[in-house]
Amino acid sequence: MATQNNFCAFHLAFLLVFALTAAFIPAGASSPSTKTVEFNVKPGGVVHTFSEGIGEYECSFTYASQGGTNEQWLMSVGLSDDNTLFSCSVWRPQGKSYLFFTQFKAELKGTKIEFANAFSQTAAGGQGDVPLKLEEFTIGESTVTHTEGKFSAQLSKLTAIGRTRHVEL
Fold first, then answer.
1. pLDDT confidence of residue 8
2. Taking the mean position of all CA atoms in its chain, how far away is CA 11?
3. Is CB count within 10 Å lower at the N or C end of the chain?
């Protein structure tokens, strides 16, 4: 439990720094260290991949889902000012997804994952984030994947933070 609380504290601290950095960027200015893009999650049982990156670092979200129609999702990627942390968040901004995911995988290329979490529901309409059970997903060195036979098919948000292999000279 202490490890999970440490991960949460690390995640919240990183997001706070991220939000404060973004707050000081003038409107209309682009930041090379953060990027948020919209994409459609498509049902039909076919495996799809959506990727976004900054510099040499990339986040890829691969999934297959069933039921319903296309849903609008967002992917945000960010690189810390000192180039040591790369983050990726994929989520449905309307809250709970109505699709049933048969599989998912997020991969952070060029990093080693230090924190990751997945949620069946995101904060929207007065509701809070609802995390998946820890046994529903597996965190690897550079990937976060569903756990076969344990994943409940509900996914609305996935967040991962990786340490880059950036070395100061």
1. 44
2. 12
3. C
Quick count: other Cβ atoms within 10 Å of Cβ 41? 21
Encoded tokens for 2:
């202490």
At residue 44, φ and ψ (nearest 5 deg) are: 120, 0
Q: In terms of Cα–Cα distance, which of 47, 54, 10 is closest to 160? A: 10
Count of C-beta atoms within a 10 Å radius of residue 29: 7
